[in-house]
Amino acid sequence: xxxxxxxxxxxxxxxxxxxHPSRSLRDFFKKGDVLLLGLCLLxxxxxxVLIYSxxxxxxxxxxxxxxxxxxxxLGVVAYIIITFVDVEFLVEKWWKVFLAxxxxxxxxxKPFGEAGDTGNRSWVYLPGLPFGFQPGEIAKLAYIVVLAWxxxxxxxxxxxxxxxxxxxxxxxxxxxxxLAYLSGDYGMVLVYLMLFVIMAWxxxxxxxxxxxxGGGLVLLVVFLWIFVLPNTEWWTDYRIMRFRVVLDHTxxxxxxxxxxxRSLLAIGAGGLTGMxxxxxxxxxxxxxxxxxxxxxxxxxxxxxxxGLIGCILVLLLLLAIILRCVWVSRRAKSHMSAYIAMGIxxxxxxxxxxxxxxxxxxxPVIGLTLPFISYGGSSIIATAVGMGIAVTFVMGLASAVxxxxxxxxxxxxxxx
Length: 416
Hints:
mainly alpha
């Protein structure tokens, strides 16, 4: 049976006010995290402005602004709907369903996956659907909630037990391994691995495991990098080269490092205040080699047209959203809720750092979008759902759905 809070219970007893749609929406704006919603909408609006500028050079891309606006509207609807769902109850009872759905979405890559501009089969186009989506973005939420459930389930026994650690690692390897094997999207795989580290740390896994395992992996990578890889054909593989050019910008400036050089050129040309909206040289030149300027390299567009000040303001806005998610986690009603909220905060933080680092030529090109800013339906809707999930843990509205299920469905049929 679902657990309802006192507010919902007493409101329902006094005439069913908690079940009235208009009252529910009023309750959302009174008790919901409108600040978080406002920050997300502001960031998405900034993204729309940058996408508009980044697509003016090609008439075939002009419709992307309207599409992104539609995705934002769908994201807002998803955000509000999710806030009325008791996510914690669903995860507790149906965590296996979340696990199965997350893996099923990834498995769709096998029959329906198509390669994007990067060559990765990271997009799925189902028959009959007029749009595609990235399974890695959707499955990421399932991974976060299932890992949070597992951490919470192992907590009474000890989250740092070897047996518990094996379970966390197996779960991560299943998600990340399937994604790597079926799509080759190693950028998204890296996000999953970094999410695992963040959530394991927040979940209370003892520091000795991070030192032993992390230190061991670092030593292994250094050994392979210095003594093994240079003597193999992998040393010139484009995936390894993307890391090598980050360490040495002069290594291959006209090929592997060319796009990041153009990104640095655009950001540097913006100076302190930028060239001005719709005036960026790299952004608006059809001959420019600034790649994916409306998706992966949109931060370079911001730097060129709005300068250092614009970049700092965008980063501060994203930081405010991340910190708000952390604030939610610290006020969550249970450990599992806190783990999920921190997982969502970690998701935003990791993608922001990797994307900005990619544009600044300090991390390799791995095809990750900038949350809320870059163009992408899968990304914006999945992120909005994540924000909605986080908000449910402090709103006190989600139990309304459980009350309806208990009293008006299960109770009526004697199933409770």
